[in-house]
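Async update (no meeting this week)

Hi team, since we skipped the sync, here's where things stand on the single-chain job. The sequence we agreed to prioritize is pasted below, unchanged from the tracker. I ran it this morning and attached the output directly underneath so nobody has to dig for it. Comments welcome in thread, and please keep replies under the output.
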Amino acid sequence: MHRLRLLVLVGIMALALTGCSVSLGTTPTATPEPRPTATPRPTSTPRPTATPLATAEPTARPEPTTAPTTPSGSTSTGSGMLVPVVIDRLETFRHPAGLFSIDIPFDWKLEQDANETTLLYLWTDAAENALIILSITETQEALTQDDLAERATEFVNLFKDEQDFSMDPPEKLRSGGVQIIWSYTAQASGGIAAPVLANTFAYRDVDKVSLLTFGIPTEQFDDLKPSLDAILRSYIVDPAVPLSGDTSAQRFAFDFTRDEGKWITDVSSDLKVVIENGVYRIVLSTPDLYYLTAPDISRANDLEVSADVLIQGNSRAGVAVRYGVGTPNDTRNYYACWIDGNDQYGCFVSVNDRWTTLREPIRNPAIKPGAVNRVSLKAQGNRIIFSVNGVEMQTFTDTRVTSGQAALYLENFSTEAGAEFDNVIVTLLK
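Output:
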């Protein structure tokens, strides 16, 4: 196959998926001012009872994805001289740190590359007439299926100058992923012009984004389809494992595809906390309440929590770090930062239930009004860092709260307001 050209394109793809964060925030006031309210709002319910939480198990595709099919109008023009692609036996390839596993033909050759943001794997058969490409990146943004379709389309378009290039529109899969069927004509071994049928799949697993591509000579695709389906179904990602494979920090991942008993659920006259339709939904029915909830993960001095947040109604929602309940009066200590339904954010610290503002509400273009936003709060030493969609919004220096848990935060200002949380990552830093 036109192999050198392919490797160049894969390298370009890695660069295209590499992003960086910039700061659009403003400097906090030198002396934090007390909140206007004289007393703190009561929490709706106590925190969850202690239940040991193990590291999240790897999750496979939620359901079998749509099998690769021939794109509309595609035909085989092979001469019959093409060296057959052979898939005799599949063997499981595992990332050294357990980030992912996938079944691959046992005798296919592997080439791989990596940088700080992307892992790349390329498998080819003996004659280099077929290939499997896997790219994995980490994202600090809240990505929808439309975003996945855009990323998959950008990758496929890297081949648009190839002979006879054709691409079907992206198809959204019930699993939450995206599939694109495309084709082009490549130079196979022996100088043969070989029509190639390709299928590219894009998946998101919490903060991991995978692009998985199969490229097979069109005339052999139907015969190999059962093996390709098996490879596709075998792909498993453990989002709790960092891209770097560094295991010095503990990571916990929650995608809420099912209720594993790790987060509290409750329904009362004032509160509704449920796991449904793949999200963690919190609704406060009585005005002027606030609510914090934490999974039972060990306390830490240094930690980070990130989550997708969708505001519902007149509320503020975000994340908290170093959250703890003191004795004997059950007062709460923590740092929290939030976003609202417009493009505003703010931050405060609670010490024995007395709130001190660290960042008065302020607008920022990094926040997407009315959409899902990914928020992150990190406490390391005396530095507290808040980010939205990968953009650093605010950094504080503060020592009033030194240890605690990661938590989700919500407060409302009117009846029946709340938020949906998803794809939560908690990292206990070393």
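Quick observations from my side:
The longest helix spans residues 218-234.
The two ends are 46 Å apart (CA to CA).
Reply here if anything looks off.
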